[in-house]
Write a structure and sequence with these properties.
By secondary structure, the chain is mainly alpha-helical. The chain is built from 21 helices and no strands. It has helices at residues 3-8, 10-18, 20-34, 43-46, 49-68, 70-79, 85-103, 105-117, 128-140, 150-158, 163-188, 206-223, 230-243, 253-269, 272-277, 279-283, 287-301, 303-311, 316-329, 339-350, 355-381. Helix 2 packs across helix 3, helix 2 packs antiparallel against helix 20 (339-350) and helix 17 (287-301) crosses helix 18.
């Protein structure tokens, strides 16, 4: 069987593009337990129950939003009003960032890219550059909020951020990222007029939409310390009942990923390989060293595990701010630096695009963003 046919199999495709982080996290956790670096009795202590409960609440809120068509309505409204290819790129990048800030970057792409690919019926329109920009937008604009990227939620909880300090740190960084993406649009997307493809009208189901908003608000308030984390968790039980049978197909992988990583990362930190390859030992514990370590390590293991591995070495508010910048910049670069990159490629191909077209544009654009955003990070922590 050829590599192309093997990667085309739905099970392999899901494992490589959507479940890579889950599979890797599970292997790390199992290896930590089997090797004896982590004892089974330690597992309850290693798990951050508050953080895991917030991911569970977020997962159910996202599924309620999907069930209500609330977010699809927003994407369709933007896509239906564009009149040029560059306008489409700007509008959909903005929507990708806004949805990612509310729902995480991966979920935003599942909503945005299928609508974008509806324009494939417009002859001669190159959609690969637009989808690449959407992936970048979800990664580097969505991280303006603590729930925009999974690593943000972890670092917010571990880094002692307040809402004020987090947004004060992220708004300048995300503003710089927005400027870079705005510059990239005319460089990557040719000027061209277009007519939006027709979209069948649909209504938003109000009950799951309201439940989604209530859970998102409750989860954010719990994260900010305004509510006890058990209250939105209790509300999530009602949301689960509202989902009914749809709960059986809800993707709880984000909860499992972090549960496994809490165990697996502890095992890695106790191993000799980590002592040898520890980037913090090479680049230092100061804010600039943490930013560089986060950006570089993300290229190999993805930015979520990188954040968890390096968090124990971050010293003070400045160290965590540098790490936050580093792993967010590190979502650009290689295909595995953020799982959103792989998901974006899969969605592009699934909706009729060619993988070669995506990667040919993604690799140079993402590498340039990595260099520029890392430079911006170093400037902001200086």
């Amino acid at each position: 069987m050829s590599v192309r046919r093997l990667l085309g199999h739905h099970a392999i495709r899901s494992l490589v593009f959507e479940r890579l982080l889950l599979t890797g996290a599970a292997i790390l956790a199992i290896a930590a337990l089997v090797s004896g670096r982590v004892a089974a009795r330690e597992v309850p202590r290693l798990l951050d129950v508050r953080l895991l409960s917030l991911f569970l609440v977020l997962t159910i809120a996202v599924e309620l939003g999907k069930a209500s068509d609330l977010f699809d309505r927003l994407v369709a409204a933007v896509a239906g009003r564009v009149r040029t290819a560059r306008g489409l790129a700007v509008g959909m990048v903005a929507v990708s960032g806004a949805l990612a800030a509310l729902l995480t970057n991966d979920v935003a792409l599942f909503l945005v890219i299928p609508f974008t690919m509806g324009f494939r019926r417009v002859g001669g329109l190159q959609l690969a550059p637009i989808v690449v920009l959407e992936v970048a937008g979800a990664n580097v604009l969505g991280c303006v909020s603590p729930i925009g990227n999974p690593q943000n939620l972890f670092l917010y909880a571990r880094g002692g951020f307040t809402p004020e300090s987090f947004f004060r740190a992220q708004i300048p960084w995300c503003a710089g990222a927005a400027v870079l993406l705005a510059i990239a649009v005319p460089l990557l997307v040719p000027r061209r007029a277009l007519v939006a493809p027709p979209v069948e009208p649909f209504d938003v189901d109000p009950l799951p939409a309201l439940a989604c908003v209530a859970l998102l608000v409750g989860g954010v308030l719990a994260l900010f310390g305004v509510l006890d984390h058990r209250l939105p968790l209790l509300l999530a039980v009602g949301g689960a009942v509202l989902l009914g049978r749809r709960l059986l197909v809800t993707d709880f992988s984000l909860v499992l990923v972090f549960a496994f990583l809490f165990v697996g990362v502890a095992g890695l930190e106790r191993g000799r390989l980590y002592e040898v390859l520890d980037p913090v030992r090479i680049l230092g514990h100061h804010a600039r060293g943490m930013a560089l370590s986060g950006a570089l390590l993300s290229q190999i293991v993805s930015n979520v595990p990188a954040a968890m591995l390096l968090a124990t070495a971050a010293v003070g508010a400045a160290g965590f701010r540098g790490l936050l910048y580093g792993v967010n910049a590190g979502g650009c670069g290689t295909p595995v630096s953020s799982i959103a990159n792989l998901i974006g490629a899969q969605l592009f191909v699934r909706e009729g695009g060619r993988a070669r077209e995506f990667w040919r544009r993604f690799l140079p654009a993402s590498a340039a963003l990595l260099v520029l955003l890392t430079a911006l990070s170093l400037l902001l922590v200086s």
